[in-house]
Amino acid sequence: MTRPQKARTAFLCCFTAVMIVIVCLVPRFGQSPDYHIFADTRMLYGVPNFLNVISSGGFCIVGIVGLILLIFRPKVFVFEKSRERWPYIVLFTGILLTAFGSSWYHWAPANGTLLWDRLPMTIIFAAFLSATIMERISVNAGLISVFPCVLIGMATVLYWYAAEANGHGDLRPYVFMQFYPIIGIPLAMMLLPGRYTQAGCLLLIIGLYGCAKLLEVYDAQIYSHLRAVSGHTLKHVAAAIALTPLFVMLHYREYIKRKE
What we know:
Helix 4 (86-107) packs antiparallel against helix 5 and helix 6 (139-165) runs antiparallel to helix 7. The protein has helices spanning 3-25, 50-54, 57-72, 86-107, 111-136, 139-165, 172-191, 200-217, 219-226, 231-242, 245-252. With 260 residues, the chain is mostly helical.
């Protein structure tokens, strides 16, 4: 790693530290009970909130396909070193687990089931961060960071749940874990050269995820206009689609040799 790259990495670390301080200064806030109220609560085939439950299946498809290719057909994707697959194996595992956690939560919306919806999502956020560290800073640093990042991510959810159970919920750490990659990954892309081409796919993923979150916000309004489907159901579909550029990126990218 060159001296300018070291300076930019230090800046990125300082930026992250400042963001953490800002989050700590924000007043704590818990989970609103209204969060569990969805526009489309129709029961079909004995399944409550049917479309919200079944639409989570998109994550299952993306997760299974990704894991099959990474484990059994790794040459489909471009990795300069085979061990670089691991953050992505963790990532697609998180996507697969999200399908089950999300389905369970939407079957019976409550804080207890929301816990299992959010835990696998933090695995996804953590894996994205580790992959970025691996491909922008150092392969070794990225691989070493996978387990700690996953633990920290899951700890934010467990902390929220424990605090909520004690009557003083605190979503700040989890919100940081969810939204920091949206800022941190593009910033890392601006500051540090990557090991591969096709990195623009990550920006597409972030943009599509942002669109999915908007669909979630306008859940009731979309349902009142369309009647057939709600914004939250469309959010699940959009979020699953948002992850598909990963396949394009990993398959078509080319290795760029540079100093670690």
